Amino acid sequence: MIRGAATIGTLAALAACADPPRDACDGTAALALTAADRALVGMAAPYPADGALRGRDAELAHDQAARRAAAWAAVERAVAPAPFALAPNLPTAALPRWHTWYGKDDLRRMFDRGFRGLSADEQRARVRLSDAALDDVFAWNPTAVGELPTWPPERLAEYAAAVDTPEEAHGIGGIDRVQYSPGAARHLLASYPEIIACLGRAAPAPIVDPPTPGPRRLVREAVTLAPCADATYGPYYVGDDETLTARIDGPGRVRVDVGAPPTADRFACEDTTCTIRGAGPVWVTAVADADGGAATITIDYQEADPAWAACLAGAFPLDAVLVKADWRRAELGFRVPVFDTSGPALTAMRADDTRAWISTTDADPGADRIYTALLPNGNRYRLAGLHLMTKELDHWLWITLWWSPDPDRDFGADRPAALADTVWRNYKMCAVTAFSEHDPDPRGHATDASLGDALAAVHDAPAWCSNPMLEQGAHNGTSSCIGCHQHGGTTLRAEDILTFPADGRTQLRNNFPTDYSFAVLTGDEVGRMLADEVEFWTPR
Questions:
Q1: Nearest-angstrom CA–CA distance, 104 and 177
Q2: Rounded mean pLDDT of 472-487?
Q3: In this structure, are residues 302 and 213 in contact, taking their beta carbons and an 8 Å threshold?
Q4: Residues spanned by CATH 2.60.120.380 within the chain?
Q5: Whole-number Å distance between alpha carbons of 235 and 219
Q6: Higher confidence at residue 411 or residue 200?
Q7: Nearest to 473 by CA among 362, 383, 358
Q8: How far apart are CA 63 and CA 263, in angstroms?
Q9: For residue range 328-375, what is the model confidence (pLDDT) as tens digits?
Q10: Which of 422, 403, 326 is nearest to 364 (CA)?
Q11: 3-state SS, one letter per residue, for 451-517
């Protein structure tokens, strides 16, 4: 049954003719979240990044158990429920935080408005969108549907009222293949001059001289404080020879301190702008004046050895997350492939010349066992796999999830209790934070024997992390997220990367033109989209 057929006939006619296209490489289905859906979802929920995780970088590289615990904690943050802005006809309706994030259509819609807001001279000069302009387009985006004559308010209200099951609510989030957290999306739009300049330009050599240190945005957040009230941010780990700068624009001041949240009688700096040097965890507190009111908090830090992102306006910010999803049709006889990720199976896979994931059987799980989305056109899809890359570490925290009918063994054995009563209890996970596996214990300090066996089977000098749902084809079973994405911003194809040493897991670059993201110049081709908008609107 097509949801709200009487009020969304045009949408159904466009979408019901064919299934969403499937990517030739990994079988991922894709159907963008529409302007009407964005109105229901509202502004994407920001990712609450762990600002102190950078201080544990070495620990995570040397301790598989600590790494997996940090990764599961990031999964908890990413799947936490986010309420709808325009509530459907379902009291408990919510989306996982990541499912509210922006797709390419959102980016196009927001950039179009922002770029057209520049003057003709600014457009010709490729002037960067200001923070205020970006604030405006992100706030406007959920209201964009109101400018479409085909979506009067009553139709939108009927559309929301027709959503009365959790699967229909999930369908409002769409089945975009790639989604961007607010921090990632904002950085891409702010970086349009650098991105466009890189189109058609050869990627830098894999090894180049060290870069010049530059600032990195941690937080820009609007806040409204009651008179004399305060709000604390952090902790943010600031290393040796690095500095953190906090600024408040509006009524009040910021207090900054190292080691503990500042108080009225203990702080290293108190002013409208404070700069503090590491090393250690740093807290920032915004303190309103006697009148209170609206303000904007901005927190940046200056790296001693920054990431390399020549095709962006610096590295992605701390709260940037990129998601790649593998959606599989849930009807018409389609089933979910099942992969054996036990220690013996992984040992056999690594010994095979193809080093490819081979499905052992398949399953037909219901919506209580796998995250399921019922689209407005009546088509039902299941989430088979999900990549999460979060910028909480300089070289990102790489996490990948895949569905399993036996989720409590091997890579699901250490799943935290917080996910036990959710649909995410049915997913397994691997994670990597560095190119090299530095944990001397092949079993990764695992307390569960099946997890220890699985980790031992893939323990190797170049770090391993591969998703059987997403990494298909020869040599992909022994690949690695970080090893592949180090080539983001180049023209290398997946089949090229898999011919490199250790099936692409070995570090070959010391610079990363698009800060590990393939979506800028290939994949979603965000760069080409931005360039097309600029070319179309810039006056001759």
A1: 10
A2: 96
A3: yes
A4: 215-302
A5: 12
A6: 411
A7: 358
A8: 35
A9: 999 999 999 999 999 999 999 999 999 999 998 999 999 999 999 999
A10: 403
A11: HHHHHHHCCCCECCECCCCCCCCCCHHHCEHHHHHCCCCCCCCHHHHCCCHHHHCCCCCCCCCCCCC
Packing angle between helix 131-140 and helix 104-116, nearest 10 degrees? Answer: 130
By three-state DSSP, how is residue 213 classified?
coil
Q: Which residues pair with 374 in a beta bridge?
A: 380
Q: Measured between alpha carbons, how far is 78 from 48 in angstroms, rounded to an integer?
A: 9
CB-hemisphere CA count at 13 Å for 518?
20
276 strand-pairing partners: 244
Question: Which strand (E) or helix (H) includes residue 81?
Answer: strand 81-83
In the numeric block, the tokens 């301790």 are attached to 63
Work out the pLDDT band at 442, boundaries 50, 70, 90.
very high
Report the alpha-carbon distance of residue 321 to residue 46 in Å, rounded. Answer: 10
- Positive or negative, the CA dihedral 50, 51, 57, 62 is negative
- 320: nearest Cα among 127, 102, 495: 102
d(CA 510, CA 505): 14
CA distance 512 to 391: 14
Write down the residue that tokens 């963008």 correspond to. 32
Task: Give the phi and the psi of residue 352 in degrees, each rounded to 5.
Answer: -75, 145
Contact 44, 100 (CB under 8 A): yes
Number of residues in the chain: 540
Using DSSP's 3-state secondary structure scheme, residue 134 falls into helix
Q: Are 181 and 388 in contact (CB under 8 A)?
A: no
For helices 449-457 and 343-351, what crossing angle results, to 10°?
10
How far apart are the C-alpha atoms of 297 and 302, rounded to whole Å? 17
Q: Where are the alpha helices (DSSP H) in 42-130?
A: 57-62, 64-79, 104-116, 120-124
CATH of span 215-302: 2.60.120.380
* DSSP label of 527: H
Distance CA 365, CA 376 (A): 21
The answer to whether the predicted template modeling score (pTM) of the entire model surpasses 0.85 is: yes
- φ and ψ at 157, to 5 degrees? -65, -40
Contact between residue 279 and residue 270 where contact means Cβ atoms under 8 Å apart: no
Angle formed at CA 228 by CA 227 and CA 229, multiple of 5 degrees: 90
How are beta strands 361-363 and 427-432 bridged, if at all? unpaired
- Is-contact 194 314, C-beta < 8 A? no
- 3-state SS track over 6-52: CCCHHHHHHHCCCCCCECCCCCCECCCCCHHHHHHHCCCCCCCCCCC
What pLDDT is recorded for position 14?
25
